[in-house]
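REVIEWER CHECKLIST
Item 1: Sequence provided? yes
Item 2: Single chain? yes
Item 3: Sequence as submitted:
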Amino acid sequence: MGINMNTKVKIAGVEFKNPVMTASGTFGSGMEYAEFVDLNRLGAVVTKGVANVPWEGNPVPRVAEVYGGMLNAIGLQNPGVDVLIERDIPFLQQYDTKIIVNVCGKTVEDYLEVVEKLGDTAADMLEINVSCPNVKEGAIAFGQKADCLYDITSEIKKKAKQPVIMKLSPNVTDITEMAKAAEAAGADALSMINTITGMKIDIHKRKFVLANQTGGLSGPAIKPVAVRMVYQASRAVKIPVIGMGGIACAEDAIEFLMAGASAIAVGAMNFVNPCVTMEIAEGIEDYMRKYEIESIGDLKMDLP
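Item 4: Structure as written out by the authors:
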């Protein structure tokens, strides 16, 4: 007799059919992947970051391979929120998956404009990318100072009609301080980690590989850092944590769920294997059957 297996998860009142999401910036809005991936089989599609106006992004070259991952300095190139509302959200509405829109901006006002425009759309949740440089703070990311993070979170919560996920930067001294600041300001959930700042130099040309000099490191190389931060944050706050950072297979995803994540997102590996999200969703089910685990919540370890 088989077990009565339930892969559903609920985050801030939104129910997902399974805990597998796409990480922002690695999946577009699903259009590029729809011929490889059955979007109906994903818990959610998280869109690429969108701003109040179109952004051109950084000069090229802006992507580089490194051991165990990649560096990117795309600079959040995007067509702006109006295009997302007109084109991308209707596309995603065709599928039985939740829609999470990632929001970016250069000032608090930029973020609020996007959040207000998304209020009456079919977006199920908003994920706020606080790794954007805060112009008024001298280009320090909003997510790198606890008081900045608190302020932007509370301002967004006043305007948002959908539940708000704050996406935390790992480029901080103490991730629990940031997690607590976001929770205190009213965040409904956290997602982590965003990329780790890195650099690559071409020793033959004697120059930086990326035009931006630095870029965000993603891929399997960052997974141990991400698991540690998810573990710490999920114990520091009561709100759900969505874990990401180097997830390449079901085993990686399960490790995050055991560490305390309520759901997971897959990023860089979409470029390596476009079908990886579906394979991870199936792999989690296989694991649950093998160990007779009835629900996703039961995967969370009772760790000290």
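Item 5: Key structural point noted by reviewer: The chain is about 30% helix and 20% strand.
Item 6: Recommendation: ____
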